[in-house]
């Protein structure tokens, strides 16, 4: 429907997918329906790494289809180590350990590892205990 609307008007509508709970679960256990960048009008997706990303609380991610979709209001110029750099974090002085943990998991588990873990999670969640 959004695609049809966008083709019929000059005022374009874009979609942000709030995949906080399912963004690191659904892609590994369900291939349908499409909800991600496979859809033309999805321009950003967020997810919580601390839920199904298997890392400590507070880790979350947002990705954009491309730099042109990243709102300039979210980019801050910060002074760091004698120069300035663009940053999306308001306060970047937090420990990097949760991010490094998520990166380690991505490299260690890869798609197949997350798929195996989350398929087991689904089996446990659906277990009724009835024989």
Automatic annotation (TrEMBL):
UniProt keyword list: Decarboxylase, Lyase, Pyridoxal phosphate
Cofactor: pyridoxal 5'-phosphate
Keyword Lyase part of the UniProt annotation: yes
Gene Ontology terms: cellular component: cytosol
Biological source species: Candidatus Enterococcus palustris
Residues that bear N6-(pyridoxal phosphate)lysine: 51
Keyword Aminoacyl-tRNA synthetase: no
InterPro entries: Glutamate_decarboxylase (IPR010107), PyrdxlP-dep_de-COase (IPR002129), PyrdxlP-dep_Trfase (IPR015424), PyrdxlP-dep_Trfase_major (IPR015421)
Protein name: glutamate decarboxylase
EC number annotated for this UniProt entry: 4.1.1.15
Family as reported in the entry's similarity comment: Belongs to the group II decarboxylase family.
MF terms (GO), sorted A to Z: aromatic-L-amino-acid decarboxylase activity; glutamate decarboxylase activity; pyridoxal phosphate binding
Catalytic activity: L-glutamate + H(+) = 4-aminobutanoate + CO2
Biological process according to GO: L-glutamate catabolic process
């Amino acid at each position: 429907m959004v695609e049809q609307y966008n083709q019929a008007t000059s005022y374009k509508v874009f979609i942000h997918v709030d995949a906080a709970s399912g963004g690191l679960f659904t892609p590994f256990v369900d291939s349908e329906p499409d909800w991600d960048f496979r859809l033309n009008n999805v321009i950003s997706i967020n997810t919580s790494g601390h839920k199904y990303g298997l890392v400590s609380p507070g880790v979350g991610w947002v990705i954009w289809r491309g730099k042109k979709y990243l709102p300039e209001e979210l980019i801050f110029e910060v002074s760091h180590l004698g120069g300035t750099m663009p940053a999306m974090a308001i306060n970047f002085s937090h420990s990097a350990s949760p991010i490094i943990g998520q990166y380690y998991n991505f490299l260690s588990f890869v798609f197949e590892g997350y798929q195996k873990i989350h398929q087991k999670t689904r089996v446990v969640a659906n277990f009724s205990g009835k024989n």
